[in-house]
Design a protein that fits this description.
The protein is an alpha+beta fold. Helix content is about 40%, strand content about 35%. The longest helix is centred in the first third of the chain and has 17 residues.
């Protein structure tokens, strides 16, 4: 199983608007094809030196080839409106991980 995680850092004043957008718009757009599944949005706690808040948006995908297909065919439709809406008050980075079963 592949875990696709994007960590976002937002201006604190946008917390409620960001969460609502993620739950009502971003997640449905991301999962509409069925490639990405098991959406989970979580608040990230950590270093209090930075201003703002961090959130992790996690999806599961069955294999790396399907994730690459999603990135080629769907990611722009999902990320462009998000970046346009929140502009310079939002930054993010993505991480791709493989789960280890034991």
């Amino acid at each position: 199983m592949i875990v696709f995680n994007t960590t976002f850092h937002i201006d604190e004043s946008l917390q409620e608007e960001f969460i609502e957008y993620m739950l009502q718009t971003f997640i449905p757009m991301s999962t509409k094809s069925g490639i990405l599944t098991s959406a989970r949005l979580a608040r990230v706690f950590g270093n209090d030196v930075d201003e703002g808040l961090s959130f992790a948006m996690e999806f599961h995908v069955s294999n790396i080839d399907l994730l690459e297909k999603w990135n080629r065919e769907e990611s722009n439709e999902v990320y462009s409106p998000l970046m346009e809406k929140f502009k310079e008050k939002l930054v993010g980075f993505s991480t791709v991980m493989q789960t280890i079963d034991y």
